[in-house]
Amino acid sequence: MKHARAYTKVQFRVIITSNLEFGRWNEVFGNYGLTTALIDRLIHRSYILGFKGPSYRYRQALQSQRGDEEPTDTT
């Protein structure tokens, strides 16, 4: 006896962060068609938050390399 499975729409949440804008993702994946398909699927029904300004982690890494004290969190 064969069993039929009913596939339902699965919903889940994923957070993806990148400091590389979408237009440069092809540099990472190396295939324009693959990159376009990937971005298309990622941004479908998505919220995209863009942030501008200095990177806290980058600044912290530079301070660590120079031997400066770690910055204190003011929040």
Q: Average pLDDT across residues?
A: 83
Work out the strand percent.
Answer: under 5%
In which range does the helix fraction lie? Answer: 25-40%
Q: What is the rounded distance between the termini?
A: 62 Å
- Count the DSSP helices: 3
Strand tally? 0
Query: Structural class per helix/strand content?
Result: mainly alpha
Poorly predicted residue ranges: none
What is the H/E order? HHH
Counted up, domains total: 1
Overall spatial form = elongated
**How can the largest sheet be summarized?**
none
Radius of gyration: 20 Å
List the helices and strands and how they pair.
Elements: H1 26-29, H2 32-43, H3 56-66
List keywords for this structure.
mainly alpha
Description:
The chain starts with 25 loop residues before the first helix and ends in a 9-residue tail after the last helix. The model has no long low-confidence stretch (mean pLDDT 83). With 75 residues, it is mainly α. The protein has helices at residues 26-29, 32-43, 56-66. The protein is 36% helix and 0% strand. The chain has one domain (1-75). The chain is built from 3 helices and no strands.
In short:
With 75 residues, the chain is an all-alpha fold. It has three helices and no strands.
